TrEMBL record:
Keyword Transmembrane: no
Gene3D superfamilies assigned to the protein according to its UniProt record, in alphabetical order: Hexapeptide repeat proteins
Name of the protein: Bifunctional protein GlmU
Superkingdom classification of source: Bacteria
EC numbers: 2.7.7.23
Entry keyword annotation includes Flavoprotein: no
InterPro entries (alphabetical): GlmU-like, GMPPB_C, Hexapep, Trimer_LpxA-like_sf
Gene from which this protein is expressed: glmU_1
UniProt KW keywords: Acyltransferase, Nucleotidyltransferase, Transferase
A family per Pfam: GMPPB_C
Limits of the Mannose-1-phosphate guanyltransferase C-terminal domain: 68-129
The protein's enzyme class: transferase
Amino acid sequence: MLIDHFIEDFSKTFSDLSTSEPWNITNDLKNTIEKMILNLGDDYIIQDNIAIHKSATIENNVTIKKPAIIGENCYIGANAYFREGVYLDQSVKIGPGCEIKNSIICSGTAIAHFNYIGNSIIGRNINFEAGSIAANHYNERANKKISVLYDNKIIETNSDKFGSLVGDNSRIGANAVLSPGTILVKNSIVKRLELVEQVVPE
């Protein structure tokens, strides 16, 4: 599952990860971000493993837990909460009240407001409307391990924490839910209030 098929030039930014499975990338994202911070230039303000580009705008009461990289021209709305390893590429917009955990969000993407993105890789120029969720854990199932559907085959991740891989230029409608293990190709459209559950247990 080459992530470059979903996200253009992903391998240019994450060259060591381009052939890794997305759930392995998000599970180890904290270590990856810590290594990337070591190679950032002086256009970033770096403090305690949190790197924020000097052009980024961060509104009041934003919580950013280490490690994190906030890229060029990013905007983070008031009361957003970043947990356990977040990477924002250029010109990403995170609206007020969003929570992001262990996720990569690529350039030009907008996460509107009151969204949750967990253990996910979100491509370029994607729009999440208000209240839409990329869930990362099966609270309701006895078996918490997450399976994904790719190329008409079910793949066992052997992980109990993985959200979504969302291809470039996709649109996620307001209050939609991407169930754990959702894989969306480029230009996907998820309707408002839609539930995406690609692998349903027997």
